[in-house]
Amino acid sequence: MAVLSVRPEVEKKKSKLVDEMIKQELANMMVLAKQKQKKKKKGKKKGKKKGKKAKGPKLPGAKMIRGIEPYDLLVQLIQNNIVKKLPPQQLKDFIGEFNYIHSMLDDIT
Predict the structure, then answer these.
(1) What angle do CA 30, 34, 35 make, to 5 degrees?
(2) CA separation (Å) from 97 to 88, 89, 107?
(3) How far apart are CA 78 and CA 68, in angstroms?
(4) Contact, 83 vs 77, CB < 8 A?
(5) pLDDT value at position 84?
(6) DSSP 81
(7) CB of 86 within 8 A of CB of 96?
(8) What is the value of pTM for the model shown?
(9) Does residue 7 sit in helix, strand or coil?
(10) Tens of pLDDT, residues 61-72
C-alpha cells in the first residue's frame, strides 16, 4: 500500500524534471539555430561560383609527365625495366595451401 501512495508523487516529480529538461534542450536548439543563421548570412557572396580545377597527381616529377597518356607512360616504364610485363595469370594460380602454423597460433590464444 505504501508504494501505491508514493507512486503519484514520484511520477509528478519525474514529469516536472523531464519537462524542464525538454525546455532546456529546446532553448539550446534555438540558440544553435540562431548561430547557424548568422553564419549563413555572413557567408553569402554575390556573383558566380567558379568551379574548382582538377588537380593533377602530387608526385615528384609530375610536371614532366603532364599531358602524356597513361598507356604511353606504361610503355616507357616497361622499356626502361622499371615495370615488368607479366604474362596473364588465372586466379587459381594464386591460391595456396592452408596455413597450418597460423591456425595453431590461433588455438593458443
Answers:
(1) 115
(2) 22, 18, 19
(3) 15
(4) yes
(5) 87
(6) T
(7) no
(8) 0.33
(9) helix
(10) 888 888 899 999
The length of the chain in residues reads: 109
Q: What is the pLDDT of residue 36?
A: 81
Q: DSSP string covering 13-65, please?
A: HHHHHHHHHHHHHHHHHHHHHHHHHHHHHHH---SPPPPPPPP----TTHHHH
Scan for cell 514520484, then name that residue: 10
The beta-carbon contacts of 60-63 under 8 Å, at least 24 apart in sequence, are: none
Is residue 76 classed as helix, strand or coil in its secondary structure? helix
Q: CA dist 5 to 11, 17, 18, 25, Å?
A: 11, 20, 21, 32
Spatial distance between the Cα atoms of 50 and 37, rounded to a whole number of angstroms:
24
CA distance 71 to 65: 12
Q: Which three cell numbers stand for residue 67?
A: 599531358
Helix (H) or strand (E) holding 10: helix 2-43
Residue 43: pLDDT above 60? no
- The residue type found at 53 is K
